[in-house]
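Quick one, T. Sequence first:
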Amino acid sequence: MDRRDFLKKSGILAAAAAVTACAPNEGAPAAGSAPAGTDEKGPMLQNYPGVGVLGYGCMRWPMTKDGDGNDVIDQEKVNALVDEALANGVNYFDTSPVYLRGDSERASAEALNRHPRESWLLATKLSNFANSTYENSVKMYRRSLEIFKTDHIDYYLLHAIGSAEDFNRRFGDTGIMDFLLKERELGHIRNLGFSIHSHKEGFDSMMELHPKYHWDFVQIQMNYLDWTHAGGRNTNADHMYAELAARDIPVVIMEPLRGGGLASLTKSQTARLKAIEPDRSVASWAFRFVGSFPKVLTALSGMTYKEHLEDNLKTFCSFKPLNEDEFKLLEEIAEEQSRFPLVGCTGCQYCMPCPYGINIPGVFRFYDSSVIDGTYVKGPEQEHYRKARRRYLAEYDKAVESVRQADHCISCGKCTKACPQHIRIPAELRRIDKYIEEIKQEKFEI
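Structure tokens:
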């Protein structure tokens, strides 16, 4: 099926012609005035009644320093972000017992419980990676209910399925699925689903379980790069979306910005987007992409700062879906991006802490950004080579302190097991370290 036929079958081109956006769910605070920088105001887009298509990912709450100099969640800022989100129709909040070193649920609950329970939807996870016994899984589930002071979880996820074997080890063979199905029957779990980072066979095996478990929703990584260029062991999003749509399973989107990578494109790519929408951010195109698919329940954004929230509200309030030419343009940009020698890290932090102190996401972020921005060192033939070389090495030291750089990796492999993107982290760190050393010795291969 070609692109246009797929878009037609999915109802996307029809949606582009006429979109009906619903008001915030009943019981939510009334929509406030237009956010700063918003030149037009409308209701929050909803594909499913009562759920805003813009969802809040609670893995990247703003941080501050406590009295001892430790990084802690800035609760005052979290409260303010939650207040503005709810006032503008954002009501789906996604967290986990393991986010932010185990503190995300507490901070999210503190902010949300200042509002009526019916005004927000709780999505949290059974993140039983370290201990998947029945007893520990039940304890983790009940702990989430206790933290949020609630008798139900609106959307409960089996966290980050990696394969059929992973599902069986953590859920299928432990007896916990019978418990969760009973909790759903009792109404304590309103919707039961899973999030997945897997090869195609692993995803398809989870679809085969749908007749048995009747998944109420599924969370996938979807953006215009992963649509057909997921790479590695990950499944292309076009396949996952089509399979879910065929079964009428609502789709929750994670990584719509691909770890922030789609918020910062090359100068030429940015210019092409700005020529069409000069007043819109580069990031807004990624959100318009996922918002243009009618089976999307919500698209999660880790809006750490107020300007992130305001920019996304500008996109989803009075939503403007992509037309066919715009889909084609993003496909072209994705094709260009797929040819870059990038690591593909999304900055999820699952690989951290490194037992040897390496700032793995920081190293990858610096390297990928330099490739995308064109600031990497190509060799003596490039213009202003000496200056570029000095700047690159200085910026690397600035971005990642020397004791946490790639050269300290001993290839223990602990990080590889934790990476949901299936990145061969030690190998990538060795590749980056080799490149840095070649710059220092004035031999270059990117």
